[in-house]
Amino acid sequence: MNRREALFSLGTIAASLAVAPSLSAAELKGVPHETQLSDDHMPKPAVRTGGFLVLTVLERKTLGAVYDRLLPADEYGPSATQAGCLEFIDSQLAGDYGSGKALYLEGPISPENEMKLMGTPQFLATPLVRYRVGLTALQRYAEKNFGKAFVELTNEQIDTLLTQLEAGTISLGSDIDSKGFFELLLQNVREGYLSDPVYGGNRDMAGWKMIGFPGARYDYRPYIDRRGENLSLIPVSLIPAD
Questions:
Q1: How far apart are CA 26 and CA 147, in angstroms?
Q2: Which of 6, 19, 136, 207 has CB atoms 3.0–4.6 Å from 193's, for a disulfide?
Q3: Of the candidates 122, 97, 104, the residue with the CA atom closest to the CA atom of residue 112
Q4: Residue 68 belongs to what domain range?
Q5: Is the pTM value of this prediction over 0.70?
């Protein structure tokens, strides 16, 4: 497993912007006030209570071991846990994302039809429940097959297990889609590493600095015609400045 493979596609997208055709900026005027974003569409900062909201100590240890193999520390940046990905996902699982507010969670379930129409399996469990069940299953699998806790496995053993999860060749139980669980973990660790720090992850904007993303700047018009140039812009977060 490539140490930065989880972020490669996103880095490629960012790099492609340097060779895009030149564009000219235009100012939009006369926008009616009715188009303003309402409060429920504004970014909601991560809940900051000084502790974790839903993940237990064991769940954090197991998930941290997984996340840090998907995005380990190297010369390009910190590991997933060092960048705050656990805090990010804990906050998300404690809110609407964890409860599946935006998901259709009613039956009937038809796996074959869902794969044919959507290309992905259908899950009736909420993301929080999927995390709880999946992390418990990983712990149980490690104890049964290696005789020790998941966090005590070597990096090589965890990598092998994750590779099997990704391929769907390992069974964590009849109620768990192994491949789907891996994809959930990978999606969320990417989000935690590259989302705005206001959501709890991407600590010190390490993910943005790694891929050269300048962040949530108000106005890019001074730079839009400067293609193929290293602008050396310091990333800016949605977190209000002191």
A1: 63
A2: 207
A3: 122
A4: 45-211
A5: yes
